[in-house]
User: Which sequence fits this backbone?
């Protein structure tokens, strides 16, 4: 039976109204409240207790050296000493040692270039180091036209020449004084003694330092003692500079004539 006059909502207290609302939601299966906004569970520190954390230190800039700076940088411990006791006593074994001995040069072994020619050659041609591209073909065979023309003018057939380098592999800006101190100069004199050429031409006067002479000594022909035997040596300009300069070729030719008379 319905009341003729339903009770007024004002007859309920606020607490009962809230309890009734919660019961209604509970019967509807809603028992949790979610929010998309995050809220902290810990009490916020008082303003006077806030301590600002120092900013993280800025990492120091990385100092990167250019390739030229690395090349000019002196070695801390100097050039490594060459294993002089291991120098073979025959030319064939020397070539094997030249291509495999770690103390002779840094870097990969495949960058090394083997000397070529037969012992007792009419002329031994020594360049400072193998060229990266070996454009003149001195050490790898098949000499370029300029080299062939030069040998022909000197009266030396290609098979009568012995081709070698003072260093087994290319090196950026070699320090010849340091290399001499490491023992490379003794390796060069041992190489000459094993090859036993009639004459030696050094292309690149800087390598005279390896033989205990200064580049100024290149003005006159020299005699270098190699294992107790003197060998006549003529210092000439670098082979590539010689190929580019007619004046240098003329000077070299006149010196060669004076040397071989």
Assistant:
């Amino acid at each position: 039976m319905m009341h003729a006059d339903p009770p007024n909502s004002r007859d309920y207290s606020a607490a009962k109204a809230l309890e009734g609302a919660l019961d209604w939601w509970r019967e509807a299966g809603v028992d949790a409240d979610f929010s998309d906004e995050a809220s902290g569970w810990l009490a916020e520190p008082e303003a006077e207790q806030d301590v600002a954390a120092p900013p993280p230190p800025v990492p120091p800039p990385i100092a990167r050296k250019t390739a030229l700076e690395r090349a000019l940088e002196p070695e801390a411990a100097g050039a490594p000493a060459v294993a002089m006791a291991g120098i073979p006593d025959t030319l064939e074994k020397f070539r094997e040692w030249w291509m495999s001995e770690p103390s002779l040069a840094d870097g990969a072994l495949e960058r090394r270039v083997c000397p070529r020619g037969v012992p007792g050659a009419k002329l031994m041609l020594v360049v400072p180091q193998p060229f990266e591209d070996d454009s003149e073909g001195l050490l790898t065979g098949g000499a370029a036209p300029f080299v062939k023309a030069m040998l022909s003018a000197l009266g030396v057939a290609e098979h009568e020449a012995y081709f070698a380098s003072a260093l087994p592999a290319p090196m950026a800006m070699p320090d010849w004084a340091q290399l001499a101190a490491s023992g490379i100069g003794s390796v060069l004199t041992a190489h000459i003694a094993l090859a036993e050429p009639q004459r030696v031409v050094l292309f690149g006067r800087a390598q005279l330092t390896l033989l205990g002479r200064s580049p100024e000594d290149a003005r006159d022909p020299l005699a270098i003692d190699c294992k107790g035997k003197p060998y006549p040596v003529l210092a000439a300009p670098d082979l590539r500079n010689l190929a580019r300069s007619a004046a240098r070729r003329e000077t070299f030719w006149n010196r060669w004539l004076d040397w071989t008379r």
